[in-house]
Design goal:
Arc Repressor Mutant, subunit A, 16 helices, eight-stranded mixed beta sheet, 17 strands, 3 domains, five-stranded mixed beta sheet, Aspartate Aminotransferase, domain 1, about 15% strand, single chain, alpha/beta, Aspartate Aminotransferase, domain 2
Length: about 450
């Protein structure tokens, strides 16, 4: 990019952000800008196009370029903060132009489907692509077993409410676990039982007792890169869970939401351990693509297909065809694989940075472990620390962290945990944020003789 063009972009951007050019105001025409700034028409055209990609301006055919609404500008002028709370991808990490091209192509290729109510189970062509994608994770099923959902949250909500072939009614969840699952259980007034999940895994003997005695309909688990702990089950744990599911006729809802970020090629899901008859394998696309597309896919045992078809149809008739089309094109064109590689490398570097900074800056007595195979979340355990006060102190210093109270069921003893996300913290943010965190932990140590924090990542 030429210095001239970059200067033009910088000047216009500054005028918009600083409010000198108001939302809805028309910018000078390309010819007017060219004459005013003594540069070529092509330079102005290119500069406007760059600003349009930043969503600062937009074009109206035969009318010119206009400044976008204030709501779209405001994120650009907000105070810079270090965000360890995010559960959605950093917008800068998403190939927005690729997605826009896929959206335009989807409108062209799936035009007929847009004007109808398609199969509630999902577009057949997309389900065939999902079968191929799942094969890469050692999950082998057919398109007749695959369902496309309006996000993983919809899948969980439907599974919670529908009857299962085992005729059981209680649902077992790890503690802590994904808050959205708990919200759906609460909304549907379902009987839920908790089982402790620690950074070291799960008590398999306790799991067997639950399966044997508590009429468990299904066990909801996040075996890989747990939310919020960030840890993963060992192969022998996955195998034993699959064995227990078959032995006691308990279904497993395996939420493998970060499968694509796994760097260990031998880390298979529970489904791969002979779990095809009792494992529902669920995959979200919110962490890879845009959460706003609301897309997830699952493969289910044949025994569940008829009931799930009925409940999916009753829920929304069908998942958005445009969203499905975008994902299918993204997969077919090789964009998905390319994007996954980029994001996996990005998050891996951030985790490596987190490990290095934590070992260098956190207090010596702080214990921590960081998975080397990927992930997005870590959990800070702060016994005998006033967590709410710590969060407020961090916030005043521009660092946002998230307590995990909502990730426990009401009847289960809560731990004093903070969930830490690297999704929107670059390496510079991690360095600065952990530095501030270390200072605040030292301050907390001086005010509490019993302070023994443990960082599990």
């Amino acid at each position: 990019m030429t210095n001239k063009k970059q200067n033009i972009i910088n000047n216009i951007r500054a005028e918009i952000i600083n409010g000198h050019v108001k939302p809805g105001q028309k910018l000078p025409s390309i010819r007017e800008q060219s004459q005013k700034l003594a540069c070529s028409l092509n330079t102005i055209i290119s500069a406007y196009q760059e600003l349009e990609k930043e969503y600062l301006i937009y074009s109206r055919p035969k009318s010119g370029y206009f400044v976008v609404a204030q709501e779209a500008i405001s994120p650009l002028i907000q105070e810079k903060r270090i965000d360890f709370t995010a559960a959605a991808p950093d917008p800068s990490s998403i190939f927005q132009m690729d997605l826009r091209q896929c959206l335009n192509k989807a409108m062209e290729l799936f035009e007929e489907s847009i004007f109808t109510y398609p199969d509630p189970q999902g577009l057949l062509s997309l389900r065939q692509e999902i079968v191929k994608l799942f094969h890469n994770q050692q999950v082998f099923s057919s398109e007749q077993q695959v369902f496309i959902f309006s996000g993983a949250q919809q899948a969980l909500h439907l599974l919670i409410g529908m009857p299962f072939p085992n005729a059981k009614t209680n649902i077992l969840v790890e503690q802590p676990t994904y808050w959205g699952m708990l919200e759906s259980l609460k909304a549907q007034n379902q009987t839920v039982i908790g089982i402790e999940r620690t950074p070291h895994g799960i008590d398999l003997a306790a799991l067997e007792r639950h399966f044997q005695s508590n009429m468990i309909k299904f066990f909801y688990t996040i075996p890989r890169f747990h939310n919020p702990l960030g840890t993963s089950y060992q192969p022998e744990e996955k195998q034993r869970i699959a064995e227990l599911a078959q032995k006691y006729d308990v279904f497993i809802v395996e939420d493998d939401y970060l499968a694509e970020f796994e760097t260990n090629n031998k880390a298979d899901p529970i489904w791969a351990y002979n779990g095809s008859s009792h494992v529902i394998y669920l995959r979200s696309f919110s962490k890879i693509m845009l959460p706003g597309l609301r897309l997830a896919a699952a493969t289910v045992p044949n025994s569940l297909v008829p009931s799930l078809q009925q409940h999916k149809r009753a829920a929304d008739l069908s998942t958005s065809v445009l969203s499905q089309g975008v994902l299918e094109i993204f997969l077919n064109a090789g964009m998905y694989e390319h994007h996954v590689k980029k994001m996996k490398a990005l998050y891996h570097h951030r985790m490596v940075k987190l490990k290095e900074v934590s070992s260098r800056l956190l207090p010596m007595e702080t214990l921590y472990s960081i998975p080397t195979s990927g992930g997005l979340f870590s959990t800070l355990h702060l016994p005998n620390i006033h967590t709410e006060e710590l969060i407020k102190r961090l916030s005043t210093r521009g660092v946002d962290v998230l307590p995990t109270d909502k990730q426990f069921i009401a009847s289960f003893p809560k731990m004093n945990l903070l969930r830490m996300s690297i999704m929107r913290t670059d390496e510079q943010d991690i360095e600065a944020g952990i530095h501030i965190l270390a200072e605040e932990l030292k301050l907390s140590k001086r005010t509490s003789s019993a302070y023994k924090p443990v960082l599990w990542i």
